[in-house]
Model the fold of this input.
Amino acid sequence: MTHSYPTPSAWNDDVQRRSVLKGAAAGGLVVAGGGILSACGGGGDFSGEIGNASGTLNIGSNASDDAPKAGLKAVVDAFPNSDVDVVINTLDHNTYQENITTILQAQDDDVLAWFAGFRNKFFADQGLVGDISDVWDNIDGLGEGFKAASTASDGNQYFVPTSFYTWAVNYNKNVFSENGWSEPTNKDELLSLAEDMMSAGITPFAFANDGKWPIMGTFDALNLRINGYDYHVDLMGGNESWTDDRTRAVFSTWADLLPFHQEGANGRTWQEAAIDMEEGRVGMYLLGTFAASALTDASVMDFFNFPELDSSIGAAALDAPIDGFQMVASPTNEGAAKEMLLHMSTPAAQDAYLGADPSVVASNSGANTSVYNDLQKKSSELASAATGISQFLDRDTIPDFASAAGDMFAEFIENPGDVDTLLSDLEEKKVAIFADFNETN
Amino acid sequence: MITRRRNQVLAQAFLFILAFIWLLPIVGMVISAFRPYAETSVDPNGFFSWPETLTLDNFRNAWERGNMPRHWFVTFIVVIPAVVLVLFFSSMVAFAVSRYSWKFNIALLMLFTAGNLLPPQAIIQPLFQIYNRIPVPEFPIFSESGELRGSLLGLILIHVAFQSGFCTFVLSNYMKTLPKELNEAAMVDGASLWRQYWQIVMPLTRPALGALATLEFAWIYNDYFWAVVLVQKGRDLPITSSLRNLSGEFFTDDNLVAAGSLIVVLPTIIIYLALRKQFISGLAVGASKG
Amino acid sequence: MTATHNPSGDSSESLDDTPNDEPSSSTSDGGRRRRYSLLTDTDRRVLTTMVGIPTFLHVTLIWVPAVITILLSFTNWNGFRFDNMKWVGTRNYRQLFTVFEKDLYEALLNNFWVLLFLFLIATPLGILIAYILDKNLQGTAIYQSVFYFPVVLSLAVVGFIWKSVIYSPRQGVLNVLLDRTAEGDQISWLGNSDQIIPIGEYGLTQNFLAIIAPMIWRHVGYIMVLYLAGLKSVDPSLKEAAAIDGSSEWQAFKNIVFPSLKPVNVVILVITVIEALRVFDIIDVLNNPISTDVLSILVTESILGESSNVGRGSAYGVMLLLLCFGFVIWYLRSTFRENDTA
Done:
């Protein structure tokens, strides 16, 4: 390999300049449904239409929750080619993610659920997932940002984004209205809201870190607000230092905010924290919109974008992880795999999916947004107004480093006074991990 | 005599208190299995509070969502051959190293003893690469992928290979305690080596085999590691690993998982109670011949 | 009685022409040749097959990967393509002791704590329970099931039981009993890494102790099962003799039952050490909270998952192997020494 591996930042830069998700809400052409009408008789090559393939298609899925599972089933049921026999192999999300390397090497399934951006690109560059540029030639309604998030180092596409969700500050509408609180839009409002909550005997921020990933969202939000999107991307890509003053500024703000957070986060699950928010013991919870799934009554939940902390940076960047599907490098049934991937990109398939799982937002601008609930509408608006979209810390950097950072954050919230040692240790690890990574990729 | 009775009372009291502590976590889990998530998650008194709703829904959902009949089928296809083979193989090696002296027996015992100390995580990468490269003729149920990886045969083999270290170690320790005269007498009688193993030593090893069978059944049945890496296909996972599918990407309904786990634990408890009798009959055999 | 039952497993005490001996035994050479000749050709072929097949399987699937792991620890590899593998000499090891030294020392120390607590609390407790249950107490089947339950319970639910039922800050039984469930007043059982026993920078943290509790909960059952089986093989007349002697329960156990169970004692010693060194499951299902790393967790974190660092993970694995071999060598040497002095 002559090219060195482009760091996550290189990809993210690309995405940012094209503003990833704008296309989703901007409205685009609905894909032509002519596939069904096309004649049979095509060879092994992908014709760009659905209907020529036959045989069995294996889809590897990480959707073990009821709703996403039903969603994928609806997508498959809506697949217009009845000659293809689709088998869905489900593994639970965590196991699937832990075992993705062996799943890819096994090449048992033709199409695999996965994440857009860095995590897909990495496998594409390793030759483990297949080039589906010819599918993209026939895709309509996915913006340039989505295309960039599906493109690997060689300029070809290896991924079909189907949906995304956003990270924001969730709260219980009833608790806010009972207390006469409103959504803060800048640092002062946020701080005075937090003080209000304290005096009302309510802890301002729910905080849980079981699994050592949930508070990565807090770091992302603070870094995006304090240093901006570009710096965040460079930091994730290993190109900025964790001992830099700008990085330290994030941790000092975080340390200032810690007294507003629930204590003992490392021993709490996010589900417990979400219930604390629902029941009004805690005012707000910075988490993905999936927070609603743990509530006993999801309709009480609303959210707002994490407010601006520095007016020169603004508040227009956020975490919005994109999910979708990729094809293994040598699928058993390539024709059917590509037809399925094309199908998954269509509004018809995404409408079918969202009908069963209304917790996410469709990637295709032609999808039916009139059925969106308030939270989906808000998510969609947030994302399309964003100038920079990150994918969440553990999807934006080398997994090995993400887990080192997760350990560091967990230590930091317990011992914020040790921040200097913690950051210099993390920087040391970063150098070693990125050197190892670049050497083999 | 008085002290004996007092001791018995003390022993009873000690066991009772200890058993109570041991049961406490389990009871909380069992109650949760009968209650809906929406109730336990908000109850201020936690999992030991008085339930408002008692329902079998969790069990029903776990059964259906977990596709349990299929996974149970896979489990017994894997566990029964694996336990039988591992005890058979280990007892042969143990017999050879504990009853006979030959050039390599110490080395061999070391090999197996040390082998059972290896952590599975430390060998999984190379093992996966090896499994991915060994072709296996396709055979219904046992090997449908064409390779050792992805086949139930491969899963059985790794259980046998991995557990044989421990079993060989335990069995050779037991067999060493059997009177040596047995072998001598048998040799004088002209009994073949196989007969000495199968008809003389094995019956005397029954208590150890019973204990091992119980433990091995539990271990292999409860495997949470090999199956996911080496089999991978959700529908071919044995029942314990398939419980993973009850948890979601973010949200996990623990009450559902608790119900599923309760269904899954039953066979191991039944097997234990059944084999407990085996220990005692094994003792009877040992006593009459010893 | 003692002639027919040789509980110590001590070979040097056995008759001269009995099969088993040890290399250190001075008369072994002549004895071995004579003994070996007692086997017919068929017997020898049978013996080779009986040993050969299991050994082949064990070596191919366990030792070959283990040796490859040792080799991999000298490489930098992401686990995908072999042409991307780089030979880096001892770099991974140097990094373990410089860049990742805090993780490594924390893990080593935590493995040690597990060993200590299993050895001092769980194993003796398991033996004691087995000893009491062996007397055919009333309700022995129920007690056995209770203590065995944690052993066989699926890990999928063990995490829930301890993380939520016991340790949940708002709902766990501990905080409910202590009345510490109010927001802001909760005890964080799994999240508090304050040191109870500090050793320099490291030490036994409060939450690691909270994680050792479920390990003890599980380990007692293993030991009970194994020891019960062992106790069944002790000659009942031995126990009766002790009782008639009028010796106290403790003396009877210490002087008669425990020594006569040497083979079982060795087994549970080994099982305790294995459990402590290999400990992984409980920590994993409790989601490996802050300051609870052990070696096998570090191995897994590096080796499994996307874009894995197989080289570093293997180096952690080799550390684990070295500890295990250290134990095996110690164990074998002490067994041989006993045989020599007997």
Observations:
- Residues 419-440 of chain A form the longest helix (22 residues).
- Confidence is low (pLDDT under 50) at residues 1-44 of chain A.
- Residues 170 and 191 of chain A are 16 Å apart (CA to CA).
- The radius of gyration of chain A is 22 Å.
